[in-house]
Amino acid sequence: MAGGGFAAPAGGGTHFEAKITPIVIISCIMAATGGLMFGYDVGVSGGVTSMDHFLKKFFPTVYWRTQEGELDSNYCKYDNQGLQLFTSSLYLAGLTSTFFASYTTRRLGRKLTMLIAGVFFIFGVILNASAVNIEMLIIGRILLGCGVGFANQAVPLFLSEIAPTRIRGGLNILFQLNVTIGILFANLVNYGTAKIKGGWGWRLSLGLAGIPAVLLTVGSLLVVDTPNSLIERGRLEEGKEVLRKIRGTDKIEPEFLELVEASRVAKQVKHPFRNLLKRRNRPQLVIAMALQIFQQFTGINAIMFYAPVLFNTLGFKDDASLYSAVITGAVNVISTVVSIYSVDKLGRRFLLLEAGVQMFFSQLVIAIVLGIKVKDHSTNLHNSYAILVVIMVCTFVSAFAWSWGPLGWLIPSETFPLETRSAGQSVTVCVNLLFTFVIAQAFLSMLCHFKFGIFLFFSGWVLIMSVFVLFLVPETKNVPIEEMTEKVWKQHWLWKRYIDEEEERENGGGYELENKHRNGFDPAAKL
Length: 527
Ligand code: BGC
Fold this sequence. Notes:
Layout: H1 22-49, H2 52-58, H3 60-66, H4 81-107, H5 110-129, H6 134-162, H7 168-193, H8 201-207, H9 210-222, H10 227-232, H11 236-247, H12 253-268, H13 272-276, H14 282-297, H15 300-313, H16 318-346, H17 348-373, H18 383-402, H19 404-415, H20 418-450, H21 453-472, H22 484-487, H23 501-506, H24 508-517
The structure holds beta-D-glucopyranose.
Beta-D-glucopyranose binds at residues 1-3, 42, 176, 179-180, 183, 295, 300-301, 304, 332, 405, 408, 432, 436.
């Protein structure tokens, strides 16, 4: 997420008897609303901040700057800390609340945590849609951010625990797919509401987030808590009953015993975060953190948050800016589907490296076109160049959506060993939201100062991250989770040095338990 914390690991492991029961289907719908909500919040701010009425009401200085005659430079029209705070405050709140969410998911359960998220969302939406001053706007965004923090922790975890093992990997990317659908939905809504006469279209844009918010809240009241969570909180009989219900069979004893054992093992890890810092966990930690930082430094959210503003900057009319954002949103969704189909066939490295080339060149072309064609004080990019820019933005977005988008979440979730998986996942979510915040807060100012060079800046990062992937990210396609150490880390030219044999023997307990119990149970019960 992001995103959110997309916790479900894909991989082999024990297969227990399980049917796809109605309860599992309801869970998928829950994933949809949690992901949609996050995506909607990501996508809605850009369109709203490019609407004249909204700007006039809350950011009059920006509004006057966007009107001709008041310009310092085209690239600086929207450079305003308050405006950026409107977008970024959500991520700051999200990252802070992840820590509380990690506590409530463990102590109060997944169901209640999702309910808390839903309630935060509803209050956030009400404040935003009825805002009469900037304070209400920002507080509303902060409440939405709290919702994101709680939902992104609990929903994916809930899913990974409720889903039969064989569909876990798919569900992982499904969450990301819903994020992209949420973004597209927000872009479409903005396109429609911008046309509303009377200047209240932005209220509708912000208010329609209420739909997924209410769905999530009602959904969380309807579902049962996960067996893992019940067992973790000592409610063994209840946990067994729920397991029977969700698996649609009475033959649940082996899985139940494994869950009980998993919960016991998880409780033994007294300091999961300290554990994470041990030398032998370095490869996964470095990769998970780097993937999150790099994911944001591809520049994707410059597009997702600010596409309409960016297109406006280039001289597109309001309408053209908004429908260009719809086009990029649609490309994002379709390319995520491509990822679902190809990730286990082509592999993670192939997708990341191919996307690296595609993102590098598309950003280079954008920078060149803007550098030559958009002058500081003249507006309107010639039509054919404008189309070229939109095509290049789509080329960039599609590459991101089948690589760094989903894989930034999938790879950490499948590489951490059991003993650090939960803590690793929290760190992954936090680092992601932190850098999402940085981009949200800095992009418009960077655009003002770097001008077209901002795209060279991001393409430089794409180069660095591709080299990182080339040398340091091993292939994990089709490797069962419990065999990662042997088949992946111990075979890697650099990382094998960190999997210190002696230390491993000393701390053999954790590994043996992991091998014994595999991933048939809660991967992240200690979050
Ligand atoms: C990222 C988000 C981004 C989204 C775009 C996610 O993987 O974490 O920051 O907005 O992809 O589709």
